[in-house]
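Margin note from the TA: students keep mixing up input and output lines. Inputs are the sequences; the output is the structure of the whole complex. Example:
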Amino acid sequence: MTNILRKLWVPVMTLMAITGMGQMPIFKRYYIADIPGLAWLGQPFTVHWVHYIGAAVLMFMIAWFTTLWLAKQRKLTASGKLRIILLALLIITGYVRVIKNLPDVHFSPTSTMLIDWTHLLFAILLGVAAIWSAQTGRKDYVIE
Amino acid sequence: MKKSSINKTSSNLPISRRSFLKVFGAAGATACASTVRPAEAQTKQPKEELMTVLDISKCIGCGECVAACKDSNAHKFPTVSKPIPKMFPPRVKVEDWSDKKDVDDRLTPYNWLYIQTAEVEHNNEEYEINIPRRCLHCTNPPCANLCPWGAARKEDSGIVRISEDICLGGAKCRTVCPWHIPQRQSGAGLYLNLLPRFAGNGTMLKCDRCYDKIAQGEQPACITVCPENVQRIGSRSKMIAYAKDLAASMNGFIYGLEENGGTNTIYVSPVPFEKLNKAIEKGKGKPHLAPVENSMAKEETLTSALIAAPIAGVAAGVLKVLSDARKEKNND
């Protein structure tokens, strides 16, 4: 199962990045949603639901890997630590966003804006860190 | 035609003007400073949301509310920089209402309230029903929840607002609104300072239920100006009770209580809304009156999955660790 989850990591993160970007109405504007099979990217509610479902899958995977890491206590790499911190911040802001979307829950205008902007910021930073890790051969999270 | 009854007394108001001022006046002093310190002001506002009830059997379609809305909110209308940048790609259309500010037969960036008229027959009686239409201020608004930029949000008072200062005009709020209420004005807003041709397209505008008046303990302009007392405003629980009593008294119908999971605007009519919906003109800037399911229902369900997923992941991980330990022990 660990191997399957490892193979799923990049596709799930890619799906989260795409549906995250799709929260902004850009795919329809830039004809991406016109590509056969990608029309759903131009449908705000569908993109939102897929982002939620992807987040649930991701949370299962992260909880799985965290439990295994805690059991073995293997040392983290520097790039792994950086990406884990960014991922944690992304998850925290994501969950706050989900709470905000529940009925009868709403935050102040400033908080609402900060949650949205920081969630977007941490996603961008994580993307940059992931590309940097891949380009420089620092892919591993733990020291084998 | 059924004749409208006129009631100008305030004694039968579920919340009198005096008590309205008493309840909301204290909060108003701090809330009116909300542009400076919004978070602090929010915490001092009353806990229960405000709801408006419209007795559309009373509306004579005089248009006083439409004019008052426009006058009262004129200071919030955007200043348009011309020429408006051409959009890229060209499929993105500029929406410019700055030279059509007088249009009042539909919702526009400069007209947040308009009156629909429906001529219908019900129980062998002919009715001419006038329906003031504006944002319904949903209790769980998809426009605020799906805005990726934090520009649209709901406040403690139940008011759903769009911040014209940070809105980029992507119009997602209009797309996800079941009634497509918010309207776009291009050539204004933050996008002009970012990537005016490539991202954004203006600013979205809609009824903000005169939040500034509410903050000062006043009522929205469309309510105070109405010569027929069509609208009433008060705490949600009291307004729901009032609307139900009103509907029962006229053997009438309610719209808004269940729509989109509930709104803070309720219409009470002596005629079924199915008939009104068929009779009104619909289209761009002209919202329907059809039943609306809760558009945020799936998100509410998926929240359970988001809570369960990490718990399931930990449980599965623990089983894996125990299984590995057992295998290791057996191998030894």
